[in-house]
């Protein structure tokens, strides 16, 4: 006599053999670490919307905003393990895996947004992203230039001398640490979400970041002196776990890739408009936004380029190649 469980198993097998419908939707976890409403948060939400509309039920992006999955490096490590499939923020983080990405985090490397875009379009950059794909299993679907990073401080910063011995929050990126040490500050590591509180309580006296993301994090309320150092021009990107991507059918790969290019390009287009609007908002909300003679700070950063290359932060001659573009 057949047991109920065996009958159930036979019935299920028969349904499968008959082509009974089953859920085939691919769910993609997409992590971000930007403040809610920040530049990259807006970009990532747009990306999820584009993919979800175009995938017609075959795929759904589940975007998890803020630092719900952890700070940047934790999310990237989760992506490498495929517990999270995608991530979107700035390119600088990949210097932890491919050293030449560190040049994005060195002050005054790029003259303007067009200069960044020339580098992103260059064979040198293409070699970098191929290295990341082949050796770390991370595919960059799209990248573009975006907003400048500016300085937030509890006290005014008008000269290079004003930076001396300031307790300065910087991301956990080696080049950022080296840059701000070169400029005379005392770098401290604080998670992005905790920076406003650290500024208010004096745990750190200054911080820097992309202007719109920093505004969304309310840094200008915790440190009302905003200095347009524009020391780094940020780069937007969207990346995906390579094995996960390779396992998808071509139509879904194309949707993911095309939507990434559109979302990142939109971030680039909005960069200048949003920068000007954000300055106005900060000023209206009580922040003091100022431009200073940046040349002495710029010169100090340039003096250290040879030292950075000697120490192996990026390939020798890379900085000079970028300047020649």
Tags for this model:
14 helices; D-Maltodextrin-Binding Protein, domain 2; nine-stranded mixed beta sheet; globular; alpha/beta; 325 residues
What is this structure's SSE topology?
Elements: H1 4-17, E1 26-31, H2 39-54, E2 59-64, H3 72-81, E3 86-90, H4 113-120, H5 123-136, E4 138-153, E5 167-169, H6 174-182, E6 186-188, H7 195-201, E7 206-210, H8 211-216, H9 219-222, E8 225-241, H10 242-246, H11 250-284, E9 288-290, H12 295-303, H13 305-310, H14 318-323
Parallel strand pairs: 1-2, 1-3, 5-6, 5-7, 8-9
Antiparallel strand pairs: 3-8, 4-7, 4-8
Helix pairs in contact: 2-11
Task: Label the CATH architecture.
Answer: 3-Layer(aba) Sandwich
Give the topology string: H per helix, E per strand.
Answer: HEHEHEHHEEHEHEHHEHHEHHH
Overall outline: globular
Structural class: alpha/beta
- Which CATH top level class fits? Alpha Beta
What's the quaternary structure here?
Answer: single chain
Strand content: 15-25%
How is this structure best described in words?
With 325 residues, this protein is an alpha/beta fold. It has one domain (24-323): D-Maltodextrin-Binding Protein, domain 2 (3-Layer(aba) Sandwich), CATH 3.40.190.170. The protein has helices at residues 4-17, 39-54, 72-81, 113-120, 123-136, 174-182, 195-201, 211-216, 219-222, 242-246, 250-284, 295-303, 305-310, 318-323; strands at residues 26-31, 59-64, 86-90, 138-153, 167-169, 186-188, 206-210, 225-241, 288-290. Strands 1, 2, 3, 4, 5, 6, 7, 8 and 9 form a nine-stranded mixed beta sheet that branches. Helix 2 packs antiparallel against helix 11 (250-284). It starts with a helix and ends with a helix. Mean pLDDT is 90; it is low at 1-22.
């Amino acid at each position: 006599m057949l047991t109920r469980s065996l009958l159930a198993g036979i019935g299920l097998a028969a349904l499968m053999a008959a082509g009974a419908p089953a859920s085939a939707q691919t769910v993609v976890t997409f992590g971000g670490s930007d403040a809610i409403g920040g530049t990259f948060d807006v970009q990532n939400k747009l990306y999820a919307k584009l993919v979800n509309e175009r995938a017609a039920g075959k795929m759904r992006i589940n975007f998890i905003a803020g630092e719900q999955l952890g700070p940047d490096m934790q999310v990237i490590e989760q992506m490498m393990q495929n517990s999270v499939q995608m991530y979107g923020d700035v390119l600088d983080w990949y210097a932890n895996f491919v050293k030449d990405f560190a040049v994005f985090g060195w002050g005054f490397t790029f003259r303007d947004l067009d200069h960044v875009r020339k580098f992103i379009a260059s064979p040198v950059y293409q070699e970098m992203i191929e290295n990341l794909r082949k050796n770390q299993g991370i595919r960059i679907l799209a990248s573009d230039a975006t907003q400048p990073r500016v300085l937030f401080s509890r006290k005014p910063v008008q000269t290079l001398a004003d930076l001396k011995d300031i307790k300065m929050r910087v991301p956990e990126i080696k080049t950022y640490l080296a840059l701000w040490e070169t400029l005379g500050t005392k770098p401290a590591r604080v998670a992005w979400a905790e920076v406003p509180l650290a500024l208010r309580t004096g745990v750190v006296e200054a911080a820097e970041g992309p202007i719109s993301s920093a505004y969304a994090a309310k840094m200008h309320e915790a440190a009302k002196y905003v200095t347009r150092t524009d020391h780094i021009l940020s780069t937007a990107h969207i990346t995906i776990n390579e094995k996960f991507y390779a396992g998808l059918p071509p139509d879904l790969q194309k949707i993911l890739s095309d939507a990434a290019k559109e979302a990142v390009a939109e971030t680039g287009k909005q960069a200048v408009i949003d920068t000007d609007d954000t300055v106005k908002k900060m000023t209206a909300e009580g922040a003091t936004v100022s431009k200073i003679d940046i040349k002495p700070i710029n010169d100090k950063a340039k003096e250290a380029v040879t030292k950075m290359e000697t120490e192996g932060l990026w390939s020798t001659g890379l900085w000079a190649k970028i300047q020649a573009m």
